[in-house]
What does this fold into?
Amino acid sequence: MKVLLDIRDNKAKPLLEVLKGLSFVKAKTISDEKALLVEEIKESVENLKLVRRGKLKARPAKDLLNELKVLSIPPFDKQFKRLVKKYPSLKNEFPTS
It folds into this structure.
């Protein structure tokens, strides 16, 4: 079992020493960024479960990409133009600026 604990900095060191002293426990610290990522992934999974149960409305991926304002770079633009020739509907789905 894995457990993620949020401990005040001034209390973490003594607790980690106690945990490391237990032969059946492997204790490892992670950065605040990784802890935030874990929490965000957990929240995303919970939202997905709610969408599947019909308790939360899903958003189209297109809206998410537009919200993120993904910037393309020249090599992508070149490849995108090639793909649009083969699949014209892409131009409507992902308009370029």
